[in-house]
Amino acid sequence: HEADAYRTDLMTITRYVLNEQSRNPEARGDLTILLSHIVLGCKFVASAVNKAGLAKLIGLAGETNVQASVPGNTCHLSQFLVSEIEIGEEQKKLDVLSNEVFVKALVSSGRTCVLVSEEDEEATFVDPALRGKYCVCFDPLDGSSNIDCGVSIGTIFGIYMIKDKENVTLEDVLQPGKNMVAAGYCMYGSSCTLVLSTGNGVNGFTLDPSLGEFILTHPDIKIPKKGKIYSVNEGNAKNWDEPTAKFVEKCKFPKDGSSPKSLRYIGSMVADVHRTLLYGGVFLYPADKKSPNGKLRYTLSLLSASHFAYGTSNFILINNSEFTKSWNYSVLYEVFPMSFLMEQAGGQSFTGKERALDLVPTKIHERSPIFLGSFEDVEEIKGLYAAQA
Ligand code: AHG
Ligand code: MN
Ligand code: MN
Ligand code: MN
């Protein structure tokens, strides 16, 4: 059929969000505008991520690119591309650059009043003249340990509405995840995929590079009720708590005659969650015996060095720098958006104690253990925790 060869009726993400907006007579298009600014940020990061390998190829990463930065100098195309992702003469780490792009895109949308980013120790309060009613919590580039080897990474975001934009405080940001009005992620993988929920199911859009548009490719995503995959960093097994150890044992040696589950772990939350959403199964980052609230993790506070990428499991101690303790994963910009999407797709998300979206964070960079995925698989984990209690 010739009509099938080319799709001619393109459902772009903007068209989709506008359609959603028109279902709500009170909507004034603010969320549509905000989302289009997030989409712009994602396109920028997608393009920068694609160039990251080129920077390595010509050995310029972290060095000063003298040739390309001298005005009027002709330079090789790849040098030009590298210079484009440089600020001043030094090349910025991609996660820092991505953060700057998102902060600027969100502020300039005129629809936000407060921003919380993984890369910024403090929340950003938007200038009153540019204020709108939304709060956006985001991880501009998650999975940064995977950048240098070309493995999938992503951006995660969650959006809240703030009651009074004129008098916004940190308290307004510390809401349970179930109050989110929208959440999503963009995965920079073999293709660039943006998965979004505005509270009415989950839809996936793939960037068509020739059009520069995200096109609806995965309408109404529903996660399989039960999956054949479990996803966890098994290197931490020696410190797992009882319920986690029991669950993983059951995945490998099922006693009910079913086949063992397969293990898949990329180490990029966005990619691991995306696979879980499409194929089913469960993704877990449990608490452990040593750290009952999740993995102990250090974050450089008072960002003095723009070249410092937050470590995932390893970190470098820089003399005279200040470090604060925290846990994997961040509640506001990792646990909540992913849990929102999971529930919207018919799965569930659990912290080991409660429904993840019921959690009320007490600080903006609060962390929590997480178990999310297919409804029945998470149900099994909940059973193991209940049995222990
Ligand atoms: P980030 O790159 O934003 O600092 O976060 C990395 C996170 C997440 O993407 C990934 O799933 C996790 O760290 C991996 O942790 P382990 O290396 O401990 O498995
Ligand atoms: Mn992260
Ligand atoms: Mn990050
Ligand atoms: Mn980082």
TrEMBL record:
GO function term, MF aspect, one: fructose 1,6-bisphosphate 1-phosphatase activity
SUPFAM superfamilies xrefs: Carbohydrate phosphatase
Matches recorded under InterPro entries: FBPase_C_dom, FBPase_class-1, FBPase_N, FBPtase
Domain Fructose-1-6-bisphosphatase class 1 C-terminal residue range list: 223-298, 328-384
Matches recorded under Pfam families: FBPase, FBPase_C
A GO BP entry: gluconeogenesis
EC number: 3.1.3.11
Residue ranges of domain Fructose-1-6-bisphosphatase class I N-terminal in the record: 11-68, 87-219
Catalytic activity from the UniProt record: beta-D-fructose 1,6-bisphosphate + H2O = beta-D-fructose 6-phosphate + phosphate
Any one GO cellular component localisation term in the record: cytosol
Keywords assigned: Carbohydrate metabolism, Cytoplasm, Hydrolase
Family, as annotated: Belongs to the FBPase class 1 family.
Name used for this protein in its record: fructose-bisphosphatase
